[in-house]
Amino acid sequence: MSHLKLHGTWCLDKNISDDPDAILNLQGVSWLVRKAIRAASMKLTVTFRSESMEFVMHTMLTGGLTGSSETRIPDWVERLHKDNIFGDVLVRCRFVPGELDAGGNKWPQFDMQSTFYREPDRIEAEEFLKNFTSSVVPAQEKEGRKDSFLHDFVRNESAGWTAEQVWGLDYIGSQKCLKRRIVVTGGGKYETAVFVYRFVE
């Protein structure tokens, strides 16, 4: 089976990404740390261990902030991760398929895990997460791929928030990029954001 090729080094493009302040605030991150994160440059290095089916994601931040490393196994089993910014969180992830529409765009197919107090909020959030079309889908990506996206769900039980994310590849012109769409819920509220990482190497 072919796998989503996330491995490589990616640099966050702030010019075409959303401001992270609202989702970080909902996750209980202090104003000073949020300010530092917004000012920092971010680089994401992803390695894939084929023998164990593990993704290792290492985030590097400028401005004196400590980066983080996280191992994700796409088997939908919940595991504890100790994060230096978000604290103890429970994480599970999986590959999910993409469905091609008439325009050649791919939409991720999965059951949403986040809980909402209002049904209109749930519908709006789900549409946001799944509105993950690729403006250009190479021919080799269109056929035979059952793992077009990485879907993960993160819970912080002590802080009372969840974060649901979809990762996938896209192209801006001829340049490959990695997109992450995220919905954070907590305290009866929710926030959304899209982050775009350009491929470095």
TrEMBL record:
It comes from the Eukaryota. InterPro entries: Calycin, Pericyclase_pydY-like. This is Uncharacterized protein.
